[in-house]
Amino acid sequence: MADRAEKRIVDLSHVIVAGMTTYKGLPGPHICDYWTREQSAGHYDDGATFQIGRIDMVANTGTYVDVPFHRFAEGEDLAAVGVERLAGLEGLCVHSPGLAAEAALFERLDVAGKAVLVRTGWDRHWGADSYFDDHPFLAEAAAQLLAARGAALVGIDSHNIDDTRARTRPVHTALLSAGIPICEHMTNLGALPASGFRFFAAPPKVQGMGTFPVRAFAEIG
């Protein structure tokens, strides 16, 4: 019981709200009742009522994970990526103070088999127009280093792990071609230590999709 008391859970996900904008040009989610409590009342004799909700959304909504199929037609989809690649991963949280998280930030770290989370602080702009422009990103050379050294997953608390000022996506290409999932639009990374935590970001097991929202969180201790 003592070990259990020492553990702490840190939520790293944004709330999904009807109509929100995660990525400009993509529609926000529509959240509604499919079956209301009033509609359900007549089906039960003990006064029980139930709500069945419905959400219509694009996969790139809120905090989400990309797997290889997002970038590559022949890549693994959500159903093919084993949960062990998305949950219970030993984590590293690396602070990047500049616009680009350069390879030098990771050069001295043992990233093999670990979830590497890049903390930029950009989540402070979530919900504002400033979130979408001139956001921090992972440098291409850093992505290549992380892929070469066997990182298990890479995440960032910014609008995109690539520099969206350019019409290329070299970071997505480098990581997803190496089978490394990407978690974008994270938040609250400032609550994490540099190491000593486990990371979880498992999406539903959906065939034919390469991206889906997750409840990303870390267990410290």
Instruction: Please list the strands of the largest sheet in the order they lie side by side.
Output: 1-13-11-5-7-9-10-4-12
Number of domains: 2
Query: How many H/I helical runs?
Result: 4
- Can you summarize the main beta sheet? 9 strands, mixed
The rounded Rg comes to 19 Å
Strand content: 15-25%
DSSP strand tally: 13
Mean pLDDT: 96
Q: Indicate the overall shape.
A: globular
State the CATH class of the largest domain.
Alpha Beta
Low-confidence stretches: none
Q: What level of helicity do the residues show?
A: 10-25%
| CATH topology heading of the largest domain | Glucose Oxidase, domain 1
Compute the separation of the termini in Å: 13 Å
CATH superfamily of the largest domain: Putative cyclase
CATH architecture of the largest domain: 3-Layer(bba) Sandwich
Structural class, please?
alpha/beta
SSE pattern, N- to C-terminal: HEEHEEEEEEHEHEEEE
